[in-house]
Fold these 3 entries.
Entry 1:
Amino acid sequence: MAREVDVLAGLRWEEVGDAGSCGAQTAVGAEAPLDPPVPPGIGRPHPDRARQFMPFAALRGYYDLVHAKEAVPESRRPLSDDEARALDDLIANLDRGDVVRCRYYEGGGYREAEGAVSQIDVTFRDLWIVRRRIPFSAIQSLELLYPAS
């Protein structure tokens, strides 16, 4: 191993075929940098270099499902008798085209819907606000914003 180090000790890098050096060689005794010359184009920043390190979603929708599992379900609060009676009266007096704001329980939490009443289905006990079906049993509160006419 010592022999190899001695053999390489006297070697110096030299530029061959470079227009700036015009064929001049570095003398053996002169101090020259030991770093090899860098070919043109290497070492320059490439505009798309970071693109290879960008994350990608191998499973589409996976993180949405994980965040949905992290959500703590909200417990449902039962209506009192007076609130249930007032809600029944309001539903009985609704007409198609009335604009309402409805708070209802769905999927482990309370949601709000606001819009025009498109249908009141007494047989199946559903209230349709635009294209959203809300069962009467899920409604927490209902507020009439604008009457139809």
Entry 2:
Amino acid sequence: MPSPRLAILVLTLACQAIVVPVSAQSPTPVDGTGWQPLFDGHSLDAWRGYRRETLPEHGWAVSDGLLKTVPKVKGSELITRKAYRDFELAWDWRVAPGGNNGVKYFVTEARPSAPGHEYQMIDDTGYPAALTPLQHTAGFYDVLAARTDTALRPAGEWNTSRIIVRGTRVEHWLNGQHVLTYELGSPEVKAGIAASKFRNAPGFGDKIDGHIMLTYHQDECWYRNIRIRELQ
């Protein structure tokens, strides 16, 4: 029987030999039950193109367990086949340096100029144009800014985000930090919309049974572990 010291040495060397590639890592831990994958590293069955029943011919690719945008082509947005009302959505993402993308929710196909609320995903410090706080990562794009002083990781590194919708309350999370909360229909939200580019979009800001959208902005962006659970 080997000595305890030898057994510990063998176990240590075995553990050091295990290398898990980024694309194959386990999903970021989430609490509770009822989670359903929207992207499991292989299938896009939960998705279709915006205002179409099939996937876009260009702009998206699945490779090494990741969903990624193909930059600088005539791509278009992806939306979930299912619509959601009260939910928790979680996903891992990264953008290339200088890149821009986003996740939208409360998405309707009846208003293509302003389909839904956007959780912004962007290189806050390296984007080639000047940004306002309303255009920074994790904000309600162009309406309400998020507090992400210590939460955002640099472009090229993985971030984990969550959106929680329950009743009129909406929360944005970034890398485990609660960075924005707003109440649908509140004076703050109405004022933000009135000052935004969405001010003339009928129904923008209303809660609906809506799709989830992955936007396409011509820049490189990668996703993994996209999952959702419906809330009661």
Entry 3:
Amino acid sequence: MLAGGVGSRMRPITHTSAKQLIPVANKPVLFYGLEAIREAGIREVGIIVGSTAPEIELAVGDGSQFGLDVTYLPQDAPRGLAHAVLIARDYLGDDDFVMYLGDNFVVGGINGVVERFRRERPHAQLMLTRVKEPHAFGIAEMGQDGQVLGVEEKPQYPKSDLALVGVYVFSPAVHEAIAELKPSWRNELEITEAIQWLIDQGRPVKSTIITGFWKDTGNLADMLDMNRFVLERIDSEVSGSVSADTEIIGRVVVGPGAVISGSRIVGPVVVGAGSVVRNSRLGPFTSIDCDCTVIDSDIEQSIVLRGAFIDGVGRIEMSMIGREARVVPGPRAPKTFRFVLGDHSEVRVGV
């Protein structure tokens, strides 16, 4: 499981938080992957960690909460997917293994691809999905019966629209391939080049094409899409306190200790434990994490992280509010804006 990336496309959120731990429907993205691994019958997991290792280790622990036995494998800097396998060489030994990118979300899990690998015994089993912009992905060229003829990373002239999803199953032969690699123009060891080496050596590489929902949650739009998809499948559960003057429409989850009063909640919506919502409108497709406060505000299609405070700011939509962030009204000076922004922030101002 790869969880060492710095998440540059999700800044400024990831300046202070691991991108794999950003919550979707109030559960970290990484946890969905760990649950998928467990459901596939795998129990031993090595997690590649980088600069956010303490946060990852605090959240996952020894893996027992997932029914897993977790070992942490430090990486000094992101140097490519194949480099992560190189770091894990001693841990993996001569076992077959799954490589799962910790910021990916695959609907339906990975049971099918793992079972097919066990049954057919190729040297690599890839998961593929059709994409609209193949030049932005690793792309596979296909032959008959799911045999992969070639792979290429972000090609200028793609040979198909089938992109590599961030889940791979390998035999130990991939270690031979990685030993032959040299850094690419990105100064990384590319897993696509290792797969191509297997193909060139006549080692069978097969694929499974998925048609369900898949996201590489590397930017805000993808995070919000995933949040929407997960929320669409929740069941209502109210454990907290909801006042009589609150209107709830659709499927809504209210966590223990949460207090909602004088508000309108249009599901699907999740309100985390200990949060307070007063005189506000939430939803649809909104996740409010634990210990947040929302007062006199309207929030739609957004993710609000733990401990955020939002008071009297009118309408918020298609947004992510960071942990312990404060969103409150400022002085009403015409055509004047005052900002304190983190590195690589983006602000859209209506004028």
